[in-house]
Amino acid sequence: MDDSPFTDLDRPPLSQAALTRALVRPGGLWSDIAVVDRTGSTNADLAQAARDGAREGAVVIAEAQSAGRGRLGRVWSAPPRSGLTFSVLLRPEVSPAKQGWLPLLVGLAAASAVRRVAEIEARLKWPNDLLVGERKLAGILAERIDSAVVVGVGLNVSLRADELPVETATSLAVENAVCADRDPLVRAVLREIETHYREWSQADGDADACGLRAAYLGLSATVGREVRVELPGERVLTGLATGVDGEGHLLVESQGSVHTLGAGDVVHVRPHVP
Ligand SMILES: O=C(O)CCCC[C@@H]1SC[C@@H]2NC(=O)N[C@@H]21
User: Fold this and answer.
1) 255 C-alpha to center of ligand 1: Å?
2) What are phi and psi of 10, to 5 degrees?
3) Which residues have C-beta within 8 Å of that of residue 48, sequence separation ≥ 6?
4) Where in the chain is the domain with CATH 2.30.30.100?
5) Whose CA is nearest to atom 15 of ligand 1?
6) Which residues form the signal peptide (predicted)?
7) What is the pLDDT along the chain (274 residues), one digit of tens a residue?
8) Which of 72, 141, 266 has the most ligand 1 atoms within 8 A of CB, as the residue to mutate?
9) Cβ < 6 Å from ligand 1: which residues?
10) ipTM of the complex as predicted
11) Do the beta carbons of residue 107 and residue 100 sit within 8 Å?
12) Residue to substitute in 41, 76, 86, 190 for testing ligand 1 pocket (most ligand atoms within 8 angstroms of CB)
């Protein structure tokens, strides 16, 4: 039984019919929107759908997940209906190397939507964590399934401080956002993804030609900062984050060399003082 002090009125369900009417249109990206009460992981669901040949633009939104997956083998958890937990299925036609920008594109879309709808100054920790100050508001997990990519978004919306999974997390409610209502937020995030994805696809994945790199850097909390990056294989690199390359890799200058990082966990050490 759900023992949350919130009533259903405080945390209303999302309507599959209303979201479909608002977002699925001829020639548009979104082809099918499913809202499910509960599942293990929306990323796992769409990964299976991708293997079964599902079309680009499928979206699965869960009111609750029992086995939400995070980056680097972590878990993602949130009380039912307290956040946005959804995944999208994309079948990009740009070269695999440039697809490294896709998770960053979705992060930018989510941050832009949060800034516009909730009026919260979300910024991006590379590759795609949404931060408010140094606290994590949202995380994004991209997984390649053959030639498809499933991108999952977990965004903390109405969680109270005592419901946050870790001390370093936050939610729109905790940040006193002007809007902590999931329906306008999910619409805005999906519309932003659609716009950025269309522009990026039309530019054949060139993050400069479509303005993606400039927009991303404009919201980056990482570039220009001293960072410590925990790399796969328990290696650690400390240096100055100087940019993001054409494949979405983070560039870190350390002891006179520039390192190009494709994966890793960034810790912001302190602001960069030139
Ligand atoms: O910050 C991270 O580590 C990424 C978290 C991604 C969580 C979302 S919730 C919806 C989708 N389904 C999952 O199992 N994970 C992603």
Assistant:
1) 34
2) -70, -35
3) none
4) 222-271
5) 69
6) none
7) 445 566 676 899 999 999 999 999 999 999 999 999 999 999 999 999 999 999 999 999 999 999 999 998 899 999 999 999 999 999 999 999 999 999 999 999 999 999 999 999 999 999 999 999 999 999 999 999 999 999 999 999 999 999 999 999 999 999 999 999 999 999 999 999 999 999 999 999 999 999 999 999 999 999 999 999 999 888 999 999 999 999 999 999 999 999 999 999 999 987 655 5
8) 141
9) 41-43, 65, 68-71, 74, 76, 85-87, 129, 139-141, 152-154
10) 0.99
11) no
12) 76
- 222-271: CATH topology: SH3 type barrels. (2.30.30)
**Largest distance between two CA atoms of the chain:** 57
Say how many Å lie between the CA of residue 27 and the centre of ligand 1. 28
CATH dotted code for 16-217: 3.30.930.10
Structure tokens given for 225: 């900062």
Residue in 189, 12, 27 with CA at minimum distance from that of residue 105: 189
Residue 212 token pair? 């993606």
- The boundaries of every CATH 3.30.930.10 domain in the chain are 16-217
